[in-house]
Amino acid sequence: MTLPGIVICALLLALFGLAWHHWQLRRRLEAYAQQLRALSQSTQAVTIVPANVAGLESLASAIHAILTSLNQRQATVEAERDRLANIIEQLADGVLIADAEGITRFVNPAARRIFGQTEAAPGRSVPQILRHHRLIEIWKEACAEREMRVDTVEWPQRRLFLQLIVVPDRHVAGGSLLLVQDLTRVRHLETVRRDFVNNFAHELRTPLAAISALAETLQDGALEDATVARRFLEQIRQEVDILNHMTAELLALARLEAGQEPVVARRFAPRDLLQRVHERMRFHAERAGLAFHLECPATLPSLYADDNQLERVLVNLLHNAIKFTPAGGEVTLLATLAQDGVRFAVRDTGIGIPAEDLTRIFERFYRVDRARSGEGSGLGLAIARHLVEANGSKLEVESVEGRGSTFSFVIPLPQESVL
Ligand code: ADP
Hints:
The protein is 52% helix and 17% strand. By secondary structure, the chain is of the alpha+beta class. It folds into 4 domains: 3-87; 91-182, 2-Layer Sandwich (Beta-Lactamase), CATH 3.30.450.20; 189-257, Signal transduction histidine kinase, dimerisation/phosphotransfer (DHp) domain (Helix Hairpins, Orthogonal Bundle); 266-412, Heat Shock Protein 90 (2-Layer Sandwich). A hairpin with a 3-residue loop joins strand 11 (396-400) and strand 12 (404-412). Helix 6 packs antiparallel against helix 7, helix 8 runs parallel beside helix 9 (307-323) and helix 9 (307-323) packs antiparallel against helix 11 (380-390). It is elongated, with a radius of gyration of 40 Å. The chain binds adenosine-5'-diphosphate.
């Protein structure tokens, strides 16, 4: 072959080599581009397989580094999102997220508890879930003005007192975030405290006014008449007794509420306890002209509780039964075997308690009707309830106005180990 021929051949070979290399490079770059496109559409963390691209190692490793960092960031964002979702799920306050059309996209369990499991399903509109004109108004105002709104709303039909906070969504035009706090319990506690102070002042006022009036009359001359003076002094003593009794009960209640009266549990036979109580109260019942029965099978199992505290409870309940049963009626002290323990009860055929008062009679100072209750501090049942609860039970009442009442509690059977 001549020299020019050799040169041409060499040139052709070099050209062919270059074209081959170029084609290879394009093919691999396209493969990379394809992988990156797939990556941009993927929601999952993807690792790119580094192709064996001669001359592209640094590009491949740069892309690999970017992807690794992206994967890490995505994992961090997802972990943060999960944590936040968890917190919102566990929150005691209701959280609702609504879109621009007012359709809820998220409702947490607390919101479902407040507004109802079926009513507060995600996908329902905000008004369908809130179902209270004032709550809906607050939400609409916040959305229209694009400003945060906070307001409290009383919902008497559902016995709820709610605070609603509406925050317009900065990321979704027209969208909103609703935070609902159930303040019913807090408000109830406030009312109980206020009622307590009111009632206490009221209870003190009557005996104090009586003592003051009696003392004034004595000062104004009644002291000179020995018979009148003695009668007035006796009345003052009675009023002071009432104040003493009230103070003692109040202190007892405070000690119980502070957990300062420990339960001294021991083994006892229910029949022994009832006989003791029956003996103590027989005279009171007879004096009130009532038939007083004791019903207690001898076969009842022994119990393990503070029988002295239970004696106080039964005596307390019997005092009420005797007080609220007109002469000629019946009062029964009984114990029966219940499914999971022994049921103690005090039943009377007295005036009964109106249905609307049944849930309130265990509150301090609560009296159904002051006129018919006569004297009494209104603390007896509150103390009885505490003592029963301290012994692992619950004081219950059934009553029909005009027919009578039954107060009862079940002391659970002891575990084998304590007998
Ligand atoms: P009080 O010292 O006034 O008796 P309690 O706390 O013992 O206070 O009772 C609260 C109220 O519950 C009473 O004032 C009375 O209105 C009602 N009550 C309690 N026991 C009976 C009963 N056996 N029959 C009718 N009413 C009762």
